[in-house]
C-alpha cells in the first residue's frame, strides 16, 4: 500500500487517508485561449511510465491539497511538497536525480 | 493450417497426438509491411484479423513486447455485454457481442462463448431509474435487455441475498445473451487465424521508437531492428501514452491499475454473471468452478500491474453481503492490469495528428467484451479511412466537447 507524508500537517499515512487528484503543475487556459490549448489543459495528460508529479488531498486528515513526486513504474515516492508552486522545487528535483540519474528532468 | 474438428481429435487420438501443429508461426520481422499493429492483445489481433478477412490486407505484422495475450486480454474477468446507454457505445459493443456469437466457428477455435445471461443489480432508487432508462434506450437500439423484479433475480440467482441489509436488491437489468468467453482462447484463436492468412506475429519485440517524416509515419524501431510501414496501428491499452509520446503527440488518457481475483473452485452455484455496481463488485463462476471477482480501479497513475489492497477488501466485503455463501471461500489468486482511462470513459478509435498512425485505446475497464467489434471497426478505419462504428470515437471529440459519456450514463462499475 502506498504511504505518503502530508507536507502540510506532517502526518505519515496510508493511501486510504488521501484522495488522488491527477497530474500536477497543469498550466491553466481559460477564456481567450485557443481550442487546442483548452483541450490540452482539460484532457491531454503526460501519463508517463516513470517519474510523475501529481496532486493529492489529505482527505481524512488536515484536508489540504499537496503535491507528490512518484514513480508510476515502481510506486516509489520521491518527495511530497506544498501545492503553492508552479513547478517542482529544486530539492525535489535533486532527490529524483539522485535516485534516477537517467531521468530527463521536469518538462 | 490443419482445421480443428471432431475428426481431427479422433485421428490424433489414434496416433498418440503427434500430428498437432503449432497454432501460429513465430517468424523474424521483415523489413517492411503495409500495416504494423503494435500490441498482440485481443484488440490488436482482431484488428489484424479483420484487415485480412474483410479488407484483404494481409501484409500485416503484429508486434508484441511480451507474449501474445499477456496483457489485459489475459487479466480481465471475461464478461461480455452490450447494455450501454449511448448509441455509439451500444453500436460497437453490440457488434462485438454479435460477432462473439459465432466467433468459434469463424475462427475454427473454441472461444467458449457462453451467453449465460448477465444481471446488473439495481440497489438504489437512482440505479433503478438509470437501468430502466438503459433498457428503454437498448430497446430503441435493438439490443435485447429487460428489467426484472427482485423475485425474478432470486429465481435466477438462488445464492443471492435480496433483502439487504444496506442495499436490498430492487430489481435488475437482464441481458440474456450477455455472458462470458475464454479470454486466452480469443487471443489464441485470432492469432492462429492471422498467422494462417500469412501475417507475422512477432513476440518479445519491444517498440523503442516511432519514425516519422514530414508528419507522416515511416516505420518503427524495435528491439529486433528497424521495420518500415505505410500504416501503424497503436493498440497497446495501458501503454498508449508511452507510444504516443514516441510518435510526438499526447492522448487524453491516464493509466491506472484494475484488479481481479478468483476463489478456490466450488460446485456450480451461479450460472449467470452478476454485477452490483452500487456496492462496487461483480462476480461470475468460471467453468472450473472458481468465483471470478472484480472491483474498482485505483485512483492514481500506475504502471505496475498490481493494485491497492484496500480495493480487494472493499469489493469482497460488499460481495459477502450480497452473496453470504462466499464468506468462507478462500481466494486463490489476485492480479492487476493497467487500464487506459479517458475523460469520458469511452474508447478512442481514431486517426492521429501523424498521418498513417491510428490509435485504438481508452477501453479502460471494459475492453474484453469489445474485442471483435473493436477489431472490426478499427480494420475498416485503417483500410477505408473511416468506419460507421468508430466515427464517433475520434480524438477530436475532446476538443469539440462531443463526449460519449458512459462514466455516469451506463452505470458501469468505474
TrEMBL record, chain A:
- Listed InterPro entries: SoxD (IPR006279), SoxD_sf (IPR038561)
Provide the protein name: Sarcosine oxidase subunit delta
Automatic annotation (TrEMBL), chain B:
- Record-listed E.C. numbers: 1.5.3.24
Location relative to the cell: Cytoplasm
Required cofactor names: FAD; FMN
Instruction: Print the keywords alphabetically.
Output: Cytoplasm, FAD, Flavoprotein, FMN, Nucleotide-binding, Oxidoreductase
Query: What region holds the Rhodanese domain?
Result: 34-79
- What does the record give as the reaction this protein catalyses? sarcosine + O2 + H2O = formaldehyde + glycine + H2O2; sarcosine + (6S)-5,6,7,8-tetrahydrofolate + O2 = (6R)-5,10-methylene-5,6,7,8-tetrahydrofolate + glycine + H2O2
| SUPFAM superfamilies to which the protein is assigned, alphabetical | FAD/NAD(P)-binding domain
User: Per its UniProt entry, what is the enzyme's top EC class, as one word?
Assistant: oxidoreductase
Does the entry feature the keyword Cytoplasm, yes or no?
yes
One short Pfam family name for this protein? Answer: DAO
In terms of NCBIfam families, this protein maps to: soxB (TIGR01373)
Under PANTHER family, the record lists: FAD-DEPENDENT OXIDOREDUCTASE DOMAIN-CONTAINING PROTEIN 1, SARCOSINE DEHYDROGENASE-RELATED
Protein family (similarity comment): Belongs to the SoxB family.
- This protein's name: Sarcosine oxidase subunit beta
**Which organism's genome codes for this protein?**
Thioclava sediminum
Amino acid at each position: 500500500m502506498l504511504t505518503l507524508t502530508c507536507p502540510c500537517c506532517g502526518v505519515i499515512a496510508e493511501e486510504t487517508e488521501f484522495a488522488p487528484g491527477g497530474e500536477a503543475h497543469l498550466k491553466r487556459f481559460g477564456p481567450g485561449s485557443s481550442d487546442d490549448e483548452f483541450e490540452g489543459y482539460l484532457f491531454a495528460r503526460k501519463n508517463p511510465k516513470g517519474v510523475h508529479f501529481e496532486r493529492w488531498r489529505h482527505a481524512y486528515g488536515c484536508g489540504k491539497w499537496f503535491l507528490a513526486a512518484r514513480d508510476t513504474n515502481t510506486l516509489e515516492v520521491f518527495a511530497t511538497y506544498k501545492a503553492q508552486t508552479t513547478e517542482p522545487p529544486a530539492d525535489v528535483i535533486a532527490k529524483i536525480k539522485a535516485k534516477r540519474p537517467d531521468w530527463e528532468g521536469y518538462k | 493450417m490443419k482445421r480443428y474438428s471432431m475428426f481431427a481429435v479422433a485421428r490424433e487420438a489414434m496416433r498418440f497426438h503427434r500430428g498437432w501443429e503449432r497454432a501460429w508461426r513465430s517468424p523474424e520481422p521483415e523489413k517492411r509491411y503495409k500495416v504494423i499493429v503494435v500490441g498482440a492483445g485481443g484488440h490488436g489481433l482482431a484488428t489484424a484479423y479483420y484487415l485480412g478477412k474483410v479488407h484483404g490486407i494481409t501484409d500485416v505484422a503484429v508486434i508484441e513486447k511480451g507474449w501474445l495475450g499477456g496483457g489485459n486480454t489475459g487479466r480481465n474477468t471475461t464478461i461480455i455485454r452490450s447494455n450501454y446507454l449511448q448509441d455509439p457505445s451500444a453500436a460497437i459493443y453490440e457488434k462485438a457481442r454479435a460477432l462473439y456469437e459465432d466467433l468459434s466457428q469463424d475462427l475454427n477455435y473454441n472461444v467458449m462463448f457462453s451467453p449465460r445471461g448477465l444481471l446488473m443489480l439495481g440497489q438504489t432508487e437512482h440505479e433503478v431509474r438509470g437501468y430502466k432508462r438503459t433498457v428503454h434506450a437498448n430497446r430503441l437500439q435493438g439490443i435485447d435487455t429487460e428489467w426484472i423484479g427482485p423475485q425474478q433475480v432470486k429465481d435466477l440467482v438462488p445464492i443471492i441475498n435480496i433483502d439487504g441489509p444496506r442495499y436490498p436488491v430492487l430489481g435488475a437489468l437482464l441481458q440474456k445473451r450477455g455472458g462470458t468467453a475464454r479470454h486466452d482462447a480469443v487471443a489464441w484463436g485470432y492469432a492462429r487465424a492471422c498467422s494462417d492468412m500469412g501475417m507475422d506475429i512477432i513476440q518479445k519485440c519491444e517498440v523503442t521508437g516511432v519514425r516519422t517524416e514530414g508528419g507522416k509515419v515511416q516505420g518503427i524501431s524495435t528491439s529486433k531492428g528497424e521495420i518500415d510501414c505505410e500504416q501503424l496501428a497503436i493498440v497497446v491499452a495501458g501503454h498508449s501514452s508511452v507510444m504516443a509520446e514516441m510518435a510526438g503527440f499526447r492522448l487524453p488518457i491516464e493509466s491506472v491499475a484494475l484488479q481481479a481475483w478468483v476463489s478456490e473452485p466450488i460446485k456450480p452455484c451461479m450460472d449467470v454473471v452478476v454485477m452490483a455496481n452500487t456496492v462496487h463488485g461483480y462476480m461470475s463462476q468460471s467453468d472450473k468452478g472458481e468465483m471470478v471477482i472484480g472491483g474498482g480501479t485505483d485512483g492514481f497513475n500506475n504502471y505496475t500491474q498490481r493494485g491497492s489492497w484496500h480495493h480487494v477488501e472493499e469489493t469482497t466485503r460488499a460481495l459477502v453481503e450480497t452473496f453470504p455463501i462466499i464468506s468462507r471461500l478462500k481466494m486463490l489468486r489476485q492480479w492487476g492490469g493497467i487500464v487506459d482511462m479517458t475523460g469520458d470513459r469511452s474508447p478512442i478509435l481514431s486517426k492521429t495528428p501523424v498521418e498513417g498512425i491510428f490509435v485504438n485505446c481508452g477501453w479502460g475497464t471494459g475492453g474484453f467484451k469489445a474485442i471483435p467489434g473493436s477489431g472490426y471497426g478499427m480494420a475498416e478505419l485503417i483500410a477505408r479511412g473511416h468506419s460507421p462504428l468508430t466515427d464517433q470515437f475520434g480524438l477530436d471529440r475532446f476538443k469539440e466537447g462531443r463526449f460519449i459519456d458512459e462514466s455516469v450514463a451506463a452505470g458501469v462499475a468505474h
